[in-house]
Design a protein that fits this description.
The chain is mainly alpha-helical. Helix content is 62%, strand content 2%. α2 crosses α4, α6 crosses α8 and α14 packs across α16. The radius of gyration is 28 Å and the shape is extended.
Protein backbone atom coordinates (compact mmCIF):
# COMPACT_ATOMS: atom_id res chain seq x y z
CA UNK A 1 0.00 0.00 0.00
CA UNK A 2 1.16 3.52 -0.75
CA UNK A 3 -0.42 6.73 0.46
CA UNK A 4 -0.03 10.33 -0.65
CA UNK A 5 0.08 12.78 2.31
CA UNK A 6 -2.05 15.91 2.02
CA UNK A 7 -0.11 18.56 3.94
CA UNK A 8 -2.11 21.71 3.21
CA UNK A 9 -0.78 24.63 5.29
CA UNK A 10 1.42 23.11 8.00
CA UNK A 11 3.67 20.10 8.47
CA UNK A 12 4.73 18.33 11.67
CA UNK A 13 8.29 17.06 11.37
CA UNK A 14 9.17 13.84 13.20
CA UNK A 15 12.65 12.31 13.67
CA UNK A 16 12.39 9.18 11.54
CA UNK A 17 14.80 6.73 13.21
CA UNK A 18 13.82 7.21 16.85
CA UNK A 19 10.07 7.46 16.25
CA UNK A 20 9.87 4.40 13.99
CA UNK A 21 11.89 2.37 16.51
CA UNK A 22 9.44 3.34 19.25
CA UNK A 23 6.22 2.79 17.29
CA UNK A 24 5.81 -0.81 18.42
CA UNK A 25 6.33 -0.01 22.12
CA UNK A 26 5.04 3.57 22.51
CA UNK A 27 1.70 3.94 24.26
CA UNK A 28 -1.27 5.79 22.80
CA UNK A 29 -0.64 8.59 25.30
CA UNK A 30 3.03 8.89 24.35
CA UNK A 31 2.22 9.16 20.64
CA UNK A 32 -0.55 11.69 21.28
CA UNK A 33 1.73 13.85 23.42
CA UNK A 34 4.56 13.71 20.87
CA UNK A 35 2.34 14.88 18.03
CA UNK A 36 0.66 17.53 20.20
CA UNK A 37 3.86 19.15 21.48
CA UNK A 38 5.53 19.15 18.07
CA UNK A 39 2.42 20.76 16.62
CA UNK A 40 2.35 23.30 19.46
CA UNK A 41 5.90 23.70 20.88
CA UNK A 42 4.93 26.48 23.31
CA UNK A 43 2.18 25.33 25.64
CA UNK A 44 0.92 25.09 29.20
CA UNK A 45 0.98 21.54 30.54
CA UNK A 46 -2.40 21.84 32.24
CA UNK A 47 -4.11 23.20 29.13
CA UNK A 48 -2.60 20.76 26.64
CA UNK A 49 -3.14 17.77 28.96
CA UNK A 50 -6.81 18.72 29.25
CA UNK A 51 -7.08 19.02 25.48
CA UNK A 52 -5.75 15.45 25.18
CA UNK A 53 -8.07 14.24 27.97
CA UNK A 54 -5.11 13.22 30.15
CA UNK A 55 -4.01 13.96 33.72
CA UNK A 56 -1.09 16.35 34.06
CA UNK A 57 1.09 13.58 35.52
CA UNK A 58 0.26 11.22 32.64
CA UNK A 59 1.06 13.99 30.16
CA UNK A 60 4.42 14.82 31.74
CA UNK A 61 5.33 11.14 32.02
CA UNK A 62 4.75 10.71 28.29
CA UNK A 63 6.62 13.93 27.56
CA UNK A 64 9.63 12.77 29.54
CA UNK A 65 9.72 9.52 27.57
CA UNK A 66 10.48 11.48 24.40
CA UNK A 67 13.01 13.63 26.22
CA UNK A 68 14.91 10.52 27.29
CA UNK A 69 14.78 9.22 23.72
CA UNK A 70 16.40 12.45 22.51
CA UNK A 71 13.44 13.57 20.44
CA UNK A 72 12.73 16.80 22.33
CA UNK A 73 14.27 18.92 25.05
CA UNK A 74 12.93 21.74 27.20
CA UNK A 75 14.73 25.07 27.17
CA UNK A 76 14.85 27.72 29.89
CA UNK A 77 11.63 29.43 28.85
CA UNK A 78 9.78 26.07 28.82
CA UNK A 79 9.65 25.82 25.02
CA UNK A 80 9.77 22.21 23.92
CA UNK A 81 12.19 21.86 21.01
CA UNK A 82 12.16 19.06 18.45
CA UNK A 83 15.43 17.26 17.74
CA UNK A 84 14.22 16.57 14.23
CA UNK A 85 16.08 19.68 13.07
CA UNK A 86 18.89 19.32 10.56
CA UNK A 87 22.17 17.83 11.78
CA UNK A 88 23.85 21.25 11.53
CA UNK A 89 21.74 22.35 14.50
CA UNK A 90 23.01 19.54 16.75
CA UNK A 91 25.81 21.51 18.39
CA UNK A 92 23.54 24.45 19.14
CA UNK A 93 20.87 22.14 20.58
CA UNK A 94 23.40 20.42 22.84
CA UNK A 95 24.62 23.80 24.09
CA UNK A 96 21.05 24.97 24.79
CA UNK A 97 20.31 21.72 26.60
CA UNK A 98 23.42 22.04 28.76
CA UNK A 99 22.74 25.66 29.68
CA UNK A 100 18.97 25.39 30.11
CA UNK A 101 17.31 25.31 33.52
CA UNK A 102 15.26 22.18 32.91
CA UNK A 103 12.21 21.44 35.00
CA UNK A 104 12.47 18.16 36.87
CA UNK A 105 9.45 15.98 36.07
CA UNK A 106 8.74 12.64 37.73
CA UNK A 107 7.80 10.21 35.00
CA UNK A 108 8.09 6.60 33.92
CA UNK A 109 11.03 4.93 35.56
CA UNK A 110 14.36 5.01 33.76
CA UNK A 111 16.60 1.96 33.40
CA UNK A 112 19.75 1.93 35.52
CA UNK A 113 22.91 0.05 34.64
CA UNK A 114 24.73 -2.03 37.25
CA UNK A 115 27.21 0.81 37.71
CA UNK A 116 24.42 3.37 38.17
CA UNK A 117 22.68 1.09 40.66
CA UNK A 118 25.89 0.72 42.67
CA UNK A 119 26.36 4.49 42.69
CA UNK A 120 22.75 5.08 43.76
CA UNK A 121 23.04 2.58 46.59
CA UNK A 122 26.24 4.24 47.77
CA UNK A 123 24.89 7.80 47.73
CA UNK A 124 21.41 7.04 49.12
CA UNK A 125 21.19 6.52 52.86
CA UNK A 126 19.37 3.31 53.76
CA UNK A 127 19.07 2.15 50.13
CA UNK A 128 20.90 -1.13 50.70
CA UNK A 129 18.71 -1.94 53.69
CA UNK A 130 15.60 -1.09 51.69
CA UNK A 131 16.58 -3.46 48.89
CA UNK A 132 17.18 -6.22 51.44
CA UNK A 133 13.76 -5.60 53.04
CA UNK A 134 11.96 -5.64 49.68
CA UNK A 135 13.67 -8.89 48.67
CA UNK A 136 12.72 -10.52 51.97
CA UNK A 137 9.10 -9.39 51.69
CA UNK A 138 8.77 -10.64 48.11
CA UNK A 139 10.76 -13.79 48.83
CA UNK A 140 13.34 -13.55 46.06
CA UNK A 141 16.66 -12.05 45.04
CA UNK A 142 16.31 -9.16 42.62
CA UNK A 143 17.98 -9.16 39.23
CA UNK A 144 19.38 -5.96 37.72
CA UNK A 145 16.06 -5.01 36.13
CA UNK A 146 14.10 -5.47 39.36
CA UNK A 147 16.71 -3.61 41.39
CA UNK A 148 16.55 -0.82 38.81
CA UNK A 149 12.82 -0.43 39.45
CA UNK A 150 13.29 -0.04 43.20
CA UNK A 151 16.08 2.47 42.62
CA UNK A 152 13.77 4.36 40.26
CA UNK A 153 11.06 4.58 42.92
CA UNK A 154 13.58 6.21 45.24
CA UNK A 155 15.68 8.22 42.83
CA UNK A 156 13.12 9.24 40.23
CA UNK A 157 9.78 9.38 42.04
CA UNK A 158 11.33 10.42 45.38
CA UNK A 159 9.16 7.97 47.31
CA UNK A 160 9.89 7.33 50.97
CA UNK A 161 11.54 4.04 51.90
CA UNK A 162 8.62 3.22 54.20
CA UNK A 163 6.23 3.86 51.30
CA UNK A 164 8.06 1.36 49.09
CA UNK A 165 8.15 -1.26 51.86
CA UNK A 166 4.37 -0.87 52.29
CA UNK A 167 3.85 -1.28 48.54
CA UNK A 168 5.87 -4.50 48.58
CA UNK A 169 3.97 -5.77 51.63
CA UNK A 170 0.64 -5.11 49.93
CA UNK A 171 1.77 -6.86 46.74
CA UNK A 172 2.98 -9.89 48.70
CA UNK A 173 -0.27 -10.03 50.69
CA UNK A 174 -2.39 -10.30 47.54
CA UNK A 175 -0.03 -12.78 45.88
CA UNK A 176 1.38 -10.38 43.28
CA UNK A 177 5.11 -10.54 43.97
CA UNK A 178 6.23 -9.17 40.63
CA UNK A 179 8.35 -6.02 40.91
CA UNK A 180 6.79 -4.95 37.60
CA UNK A 181 3.39 -4.99 39.31
CA UNK A 182 4.80 -2.79 42.08
CA UNK A 183 6.19 -0.38 39.47
CA UNK A 184 2.82 -0.19 37.70
CA UNK A 185 0.96 0.34 40.96
CA UNK A 186 3.41 3.03 42.12
CA UNK A 187 3.07 4.97 38.86
CA UNK A 188 -0.72 4.71 38.99
CA UNK A 189 -0.72 6.01 42.57
CA UNK A 190 1.64 8.82 41.63
CA UNK A 191 -0.66 9.87 38.79
CA UNK A 192 -3.39 10.27 41.42
CA UNK A 193 -1.09 12.21 43.77
CA UNK A 194 -0.97 9.41 46.34
CA UNK A 195 2.71 9.86 47.21
CA UNK A 196 2.93 9.96 51.00
CA UNK A 197 2.89 7.08 53.47
CA UNK A 198 -0.39 8.14 55.19
CA UNK A 199 -2.20 8.62 51.86
CA UNK A 200 -0.92 5.22 50.69
CA UNK A 201 -2.17 3.56 53.87
CA UNK A 202 -5.65 4.97 53.30
CA UNK A 203 -5.69 3.96 49.63
CA UNK A 204 -4.54 0.41 50.33
CA UNK A 205 -7.22 0.03 52.99
CA UNK A 206 -9.81 0.96 50.37
CA UNK A 207 -8.30 -1.38 47.78
CA UNK A 208 -8.17 -4.31 50.22
CA UNK A 209 -11.67 -3.68 51.57
CA UNK A 210 -13.04 -3.45 48.03
CA UNK A 211 -11.36 -6.71 47.01
CA UNK A 212 -12.67 -8.46 50.13
CA UNK A 213 -16.22 -7.26 49.53
CA UNK A 214 -16.08 -8.28 45.86
CA UNK A 215 -15.03 -11.76 46.95
CA UNK A 216 -17.94 -11.89 49.44
CA UNK A 217 -20.47 -10.79 46.81
CA UNK A 218 -19.08 -13.22 44.26
CA UNK A 219 -19.62 -16.07 46.74
CA UNK A 220 -23.04 -14.78 47.83
CA UNK A 221 -24.37 -14.59 44.28
CA UNK A 222 -22.72 -17.83 43.22
CA UNK A 223 -20.43 -16.33 40.58
CA UNK A 224 -17.65 -18.79 41.35
CA UNK A 225 -14.37 -17.74 39.76
CA UNK A 226 -15.99 -15.59 37.10
CA UNK A 227 -14.49 -12.13 36.99
CA UNK A 228 -16.88 -9.32 37.80
CA UNK A 229 -17.73 -6.97 34.97
CA UNK A 230 -17.19 -3.24 35.43
CA UNK A 231 -20.87 -2.47 36.09
CA UNK A 232 -20.98 -5.08 38.85
CA UNK A 233 -17.85 -3.63 40.42
CA UNK A 234 -19.40 -0.16 40.33
CA UNK A 235 -22.55 -1.41 42.09
CA UNK A 236 -20.52 -3.10 44.83
CA UNK A 237 -18.42 0.03 45.27
CA UNK A 238 -21.58 2.13 45.67
CA UNK A 239 -23.02 -0.27 48.25
CA UNK A 240 -19.91 0.03 50.38
CA UNK A 241 -18.47 3.48 49.74
CA UNK A 242 -21.55 5.57 48.85
CA UNK A 243 -24.31 3.84 50.82
CA UNK A 244 -21.90 2.68 53.55
CA UNK A 245 -23.86 -0.57 53.94
CA UNK A 246 -22.55 -3.55 55.88
CA UNK A 247 -22.41 -7.08 54.54
CA UNK A 248 -25.50 -7.86 56.63
CA UNK A 249 -27.47 -5.23 54.69
CA UNK A 250 -26.25 -6.61 51.37
CA UNK A 251 -27.18 -10.13 52.46
CA UNK A 252 -30.65 -9.00 53.56
CA UNK A 253 -31.26 -7.39 50.16
CA UNK A 254 -29.94 -10.51 48.44
CA UNK A 255 -32.35 -12.74 50.39
CA UNK A 256 -35.31 -10.53 49.45
CA UNK A 257 -34.14 -10.64 45.84
CA UNK A 258 -34.12 -14.45 45.75
CA UNK A 259 -37.47 -14.68 47.55
CA UNK A 260 -39.06 -12.32 45.02
CA UNK A 261 -37.35 -13.41 41.77
CA UNK A 262 -36.32 -16.99 42.60
CA UNK A 263 -32.76 -16.26 41.48
CA UNK A 264 -29.74 -14.11 42.37
CA UNK A 265 -29.94 -10.81 40.53
CA UNK A 266 -27.49 -8.02 41.28
CA UNK A 267 -29.57 -5.37 39.53
CA UNK A 268 -32.62 -6.22 41.61
CA UNK A 269 -30.55 -6.26 44.79
CA UNK A 270 -29.10 -2.90 43.78
CA UNK A 271 -32.63 -1.52 43.40
CA UNK A 272 -33.51 -2.61 46.93
CA UNK A 273 -30.34 -1.11 48.39
CA UNK A 274 -30.86 2.16 46.53
CA UNK A 275 -34.34 2.43 48.02
CA UNK A 276 -33.10 1.61 51.50
CA UNK A 277 -30.40 4.25 51.14
CA UNK A 278 -32.95 6.82 49.97
CA UNK A 279 -35.19 5.94 52.93
CA UNK A 280 -32.28 6.34 55.35
CA UNK A 281 -32.13 2.73 56.61
CA UNK A 282 -28.69 1.73 57.81
CA UNK A 283 -29.11 -1.69 59.44
CA UNK A 284 -31.25 -4.82 58.93
CA UNK A 285 -32.89 -4.04 62.27
CA UNK A 286 -34.10 -0.69 60.96
CA UNK A 287 -35.46 -2.43 57.87
CA UNK A 288 -37.32 -4.96 60.04
CA UNK A 289 -38.68 -2.22 62.30
CA UNK A 290 -40.00 -0.32 59.30
CA UNK A 291 -41.58 -3.54 57.98
CA UNK A 292 -43.29 -4.13 61.31
CA UNK A 293 -44.56 -0.56 61.31
CA UNK A 294 -45.89 -1.01 57.79
CA UNK A 295 -47.78 -4.13 58.85
CA UNK A 296 -49.36 -2.22 61.72
CA UNK A 297 -50.44 0.56 59.39
CA UNK A 298 -51.19 -1.35 56.22
CA UNK A 299 -54.66 0.17 56.03
CA UNK A 300 -53.09 3.59 55.54
CA UNK A 301 -52.57 4.85 52.02
CA UNK A 302 -48.91 5.69 52.41
CA UNK A 303 -46.70 2.81 53.47
CA UNK A 304 -42.97 2.58 53.91
CA UNK A 305 -41.18 3.05 50.59
CA UNK A 306 -38.98 -0.03 50.87
CA UNK A 307 -41.35 -2.92 51.56
CA UNK A 308 -44.55 -2.29 49.64
CA UNK A 309 -45.49 -4.10 46.48
CA UNK A 310 -44.87 -0.83 44.67
CA UNK A 311 -41.32 -0.79 46.01
CA UNK A 312 -40.57 -4.31 44.87
CA UNK A 313 -42.19 -3.63 41.53
CA UNK A 314 -39.90 -0.60 41.15
CA UNK A 315 -36.89 -2.73 42.01
CA UNK A 316 -37.96 -5.36 39.49
CA UNK A 317 -38.40 -2.73 36.77
CA UNK A 318 -34.98 -1.31 37.58
CA UNK A 319 -33.54 -4.80 37.26
CA UNK A 320 -35.11 -5.84 34.01
CA UNK A 321 -36.23 -2.72 32.26
CA UNK A 322 -35.40 0.92 32.54
CA UNK A 323 -31.62 0.71 33.09
CA UNK A 324 -30.97 -1.72 30.24
Amino acid sequence: MKIIPIYKNKIISLPFEIVTQKLSTATKEELAVLIAVLAEPEFEVKSLAAKLDMTENSFTRALETWKREGVILEDSDSEVTSLSETSSDAAEIKTRKKNSSRIEIHTTLPHYTSEEIAAAVERTHGCSELLDSCQQILGKMFNVSETSIIIGLIDHLSLQHEYIVLLCSHAAAIGKKSVRYIEKLALNLYDRDITTYPSLEEELKLIEARASLESYVRTLFGFGKRALIQKEKEMIKAWSEKFNFSRDMIKAAYEITVSRTNEPNMKYTNGILENWYAAGYKTPEEVEAAEAERNRNKDKTQASSFATDDFYEAALKRSYGSDN
